[in-house]
């Protein structure tokens, strides 16, 4: 089997890349180790930056997003029982974000790929990327019980942190930058309408809390918990009681409660692998970088990576110049590090570290009060949250 671009992974990055290449007349094959049902139900990110939503629309994958997604023009910060709304359009020249779950993005892109695009092989496990440093890279994979080889002009690894793509970059060329946080997020899905019409980020002396949503009828909420927490150790009423404590305000706002349908714990870490390219192998998304979820950047960074690659490949085919492909890693990493900085700032702003001192507590409150009282500080947050430019 042969193609121009071999794509490992049918998450939002791999699927969006396949769509962008199809629209540009460039053939690709997508290999996904899981079955279609798994890909379409795995819960991940739910916030699309302005740029990600615009790219999906331009790619022809935005119809259902625009019909069912929830446009949000701001977020609310809570601290010391006070509330402060950050108005995105007023601070960024009209930019906003869209609440639309990764599961739904994947469903839309899978349907388009199967109807119009190149091969999308589910239960096709990539075993190795070979000859990445040459002009003829190959993906060795297993599908329907037998091994096969996909010969490519380019390979893009969208196969996540545990995938095989990054392993094909020689260790001597790799640099890794990472930070592990001593807490995680206990997340729940609940069949109850959201208690606020925008996301609420709360800093509390007992720890961080986030009020989010998946739809007008389904709430998504999070609590900061110690690293390694077992989600089953928390009872439903215990979770609601703790959310109510951390999200409380001095006015008449109240938290709606309902049946909890899912509990998970998400670890918190920052990770960057440099470079994001070796020869004709290109890394995208979690294969190259991970951010703590506080800044809602993971899916959006992955989208930026594949947009950068698609533009560079189209430029090479139209002009014969490899300049943009050669600059892929450097171009992506500028955006990646800004997103890492923003996610780190949001995480340290809102989470109470184990053993935090009264001095550190007061610094957090001072930072939040600065955002609430300074248009410049508020604008920096709004620009980061709605997204850094692609490419």
Class by SSE composition: alpha+beta
* Radius of gyration of CA atoms, rounded to a whole number: 21 Å
Tell how many strands the DSSP assignment holds.
19
Range of helix content: 25-40%
Average of per-residue pLDDT values: 96
Given the C-alpha coordinates, what overall shape results? globular
Low-pLDDT windows of residues: none
Strand content: 25-35%
Number of helices: 12
Largest sheet: 8 strands, mixed
Distance between the termini: 31 Å
What does this structure look like?
This protein is an alpha+beta fold. It has helices at residues 12-23, 36-41, 50-58, 63-68, 88-92, 102-116, 236-247, 298-319, 323-326, 328-350, 358-373, 375-386, and strands spanning 2-8, 28-31, 47-48, 70-72, 74-79, 82-87, 97-99, 120-121, 124-130, 138-143, 146-157, 175-190, 199-203, 209-215, 218-226, 260-274, 277-278, 281-283, 289-290. The strands form three sheets. Strands 1, 2, 8, 9, 10, 11, 17 and 18 form an eight-stranded mixed beta sheet that branches. The chain has an eight-stranded mixed beta sheet with strand order 6-5-13-14-15-12-16-19. Strands 3-7-4 form a three-stranded antiparallel beta sheet. Strand 13 (199-203) and strand 14 (209-215) form a beta hairpin. The two termini are 31 Å apart. The mean pLDDT is 96.
